[in-house]
Write a structure and sequence with these properties.
Length: 483
């Protein structure tokens, strides 16, 4: 599989691949990618704008479905090399990479189906007045993607954008430029008009910032940190864009006294260390009923310590490398600061090289305002806290600026539902964690974001509703009743 990656603008692959992308498990260069500037961003916007304004792409639902189905087919034909590239470039385990590619392909197919059903509605608000609500494509969408799940996070924005009839500019994180370009190359097919999808690669955010400011971009679909999300919201204010923001989280797992702690501790350990703890929904805080705290301490330490840290490409590894050495060092420094302040350090993570490896840390703490119970620490770090009552559990879980996801562990189904309703999170799992589906809307309450991706509602981020009103009148001889 070709690895060097170029920009794709107005249907042409362009630019000189000069920046290296490397494998975080061993530092080896995997390939090179283009370094874009603001002129490249302007060219990509102008191509996307032109195709949106001057072709029937937005009205041709069957063509859009066809393009999406062909994309899914092309991805499927290369699924194994794509999964291997994803593992090499991101560090995640090969099992997780294969799962991500399968989920991404399935999601493309889901939106291919929906492309044929972007339905509005018609009402008659007064006799003889017909109001048609058309759901129209919003225009040009800029899709800014992080590195942690670059395949599925690309698809969950780009597929609904294309299904809805938008044209798009994709801007991945530098660290996962090669896998993104490899996936976009699978979209290069005759049915897709030139400029309907454009790709901009860069190290940093100069081109991305230009997309956010541009008056010719109608929608920003951003997945990434809350900090950058806020910056984008401010920068997009002048041009009043539609914003879809999928941001950070600090997911709690609430474990009640009727739970089988021995059985669930290994599942919580995996939920916390998925993608080396670099998943927005990863389990970050385990809140356990005080009667089960001793057992949870022992079982969780055992489960976390038994996970094998090693190169993602080795099928025996449970936890791969972090995204790069700089991130590993930053996470490790924060974890050490947390260990200094926590009531108890139950398991202390260690780094090992030459790759960006870091084993999991578990601390116990009683004070939920501590920075490490509040801030998103994007690595294998978990806190253990206790509660006595349901009310206390919910208050502790809701005591955060985030609201992305949580899980409730109990066999009492009424309690599970009661707690799920009280939690201020976009997703709540019962006796499970980290389950996401193409069909089910995901998104954040509070500072975890705006809008929803996945599911039918994702189309709302890429559409506008137009009201067309016609006074058709009533037939002669029909009495119009007075008020
Ligand atoms: P990040 O915010 O640093 O970067 C994300 C993307 O934004 C990258 O492509 C980056 O180049 C770009 N970017 C950076 N500065 C920008 C600017 N000023 N203007 C426009 N674009 C800019 O995030 P990251 O470190 O790549 O990813 C990790 C974060 O993403 C975590 O906070 C995680 O929780 C979050 N995340 C959220 C979800 C979700 O569904 N809510 C999913 C995955 C990741």
């Amino acid at each position: 599989m070709e690895r060097d990656a170029m920009n794709w603008i107005a249907g042409e692959w362009a630019g000189k691949p000069v920046l290296a992308s490397s494998d975080p498990s061993n530092g080896e260069t995997l390939g090179r990618f283009v370094s874009s500037n603001t002129q490249d961003a302007d060219a990509a916007v102008s191509a996307a704008r032109h195709t949106f304004d001057h072709t029937t792409w937005a009205q041709d639902a069957r063509r859009r479905q066809d393009v999406l189905l062909r994309w899914a087919q092309a991805l499927e034909l290369s699924v194994e090399p794509l999964a291997e590239l994803l593992t090499h470039e991101n560090g995640k385990t090969i099992g997780q990479a294969r799962g991500e590619m399968r989920a991404a392909i399935s999601e493309v197919r889901y939106y291919a189906g929906l492309a044929r059903h972007i339905a509005g509605h018609v009402i008659e608000p007064e006799p003889g007045t017909i109001s048609t609500m058309l759901r129209e494509a919003a225009g040009v969408a800029a899709i800014i993607v992080p590195w942690n799940a670059p395949a599925v996070l690309l698809v969950r924005s780009l597929a609904p954008a294309l299904a809805a009839g938008c044209t798009a500019i994709v801007k991945p994180a530098a660290q996962t430029s090669l896998i993104t370009a490899a996936m976009i190359r699978c979209l290069d097919q005759p049915a897709l008009p030139a400029g309907a999808v454009n790709l901009l690669l860069e190290n940093g955010a100069e081109a991305a910032a230009r997309l956010v400011e541009s008056a010719d971009v109608d929608v920003i679909s951003f997945t990434g940190s809350t900090e950058v999300g806020k910056r984008i919201m401010r920068a997009a204010a002048d041009s009043m864009k539609r914003l879809s923001l999928e941001l950070g989280g600090k997911s709690c797992c609430l474990v009640f006294e009727d739970s089988d702690v021995k059985a669930i501790a290994p599942r919580l350990a995996r939920a916390a260390t998925i993608i080396s703890g670099q998943q927005c929904t990863a389990a970050r805080r385990i809140l356990v009923h005080v009667s089960k705290a001793d057992q949870m301490r022992d079982e969780l330490v055992k489960a976390l310590a038994s996970l094998k840290v090693g190169p993602g490409i080795d099928p025996a590894s449970d936890i791969g490398a972090l995204i790069d050495a700089a991130s590993r060092d930053a996470v490790q420094t924060t974890v050490e600061r947390a260990c200094d302040l926590a009531d108890r350090v139950l398991l202390r993570g260690t780094s090992s090289g030459p790759g960006a490896f870091l084993s999991p840390t578990l601390v116990e703490h009683g004070e939920p305002h501590a920075f490490f119970c509040q801030d998103e620490i994007f690595g294998p770090f978990v806190t253990l806290e206790t509660f006595v009552t349901e009310k206390e559990a919910v208050e502790k879980a809701n005591n955060t600026v985030f609201g992305l996801s949580a899980s409730v562990w109990t066999h009492d189904s009424a309690r599970a539902f009661r707690i799920a309703r009280a939690l201020r999170d976009g997703t709540v799992w019962i006796n499970d964690h980290n389950r996401l589906f193409a069909e089910a809307e995901t998104g954040g309450y509070r500072q975890s974001g705006l809008g929803r991706l996945h599911g039918y509602d994702a189309l709302a981020d890429f559409t506008e509703i137009k009201h067309i009103c016609v006074g058709a009148g009533v037939l002669e001889g029909i009495e119009v009743l007075g008020s």
